[in-house]
Give the backbone structure.
Amino acid sequence: ELMAEGIWEPTRERLNACCQELSRIAGLLGDLSRLQQMESEQLVLHREPVEFKALLEDIRELFAGALQEKHIDCRLEGGPLTAEADRDRISQVLQNLMSNAVKYTPEGGSIRWTLAREEDSARISITDSGIGIDKKDLPYLFERFYRADSARTAGRSFGLGLAIARSIAEAHRGTIRAENQPEGVCFIVQFKI
């Protein structure tokens, strides 16, 4: 408004700041729309056989630049694991978890993905060597707009990514949870196959 009214000169820096803020708001609106769609049971899953080791290798490749920049060792453990799932939705969950792991793992740290079949369910976990999560925050991590008051949640997070991940896991008749480790945190996604 200040630029439109001629009070501020529209400099490149001010226009870039406006553009970044609009992108942030558009991202928030998109997240809210996805969450509302999932919670109103309008989420339609397109199930197909998904080979999770291959999917995680693709996700690791997406984050290759960030992993390399921070010198993070990212490993995949476990054999092939195939299950019926909505590939795009599950990929969204796993990318969210990978993004968080990269963000909160210190330079030179590690991230470990583990795949396992447990009776009639698939179990996918991601463990980082980051700063962990305060014990008092663990029960609320998957609530919408919840942001723990710690260095782990510093930045421009809205507290929606994990709420969306939980909705997608539940739509697959599954669960998602977090557990602190001696070093870092482990997120576990488990659903029926």
Remarks:
- Residues 150-156 have pLDDT under 50 and may be disordered.
- Strands lie at 47-51, 73-77, 82-86, 110-118, 121-128, 174-180, 185-192.
- The first strand starts at residue 47 and ends at 51.
- The chain is about 40% helix and 25% strand.
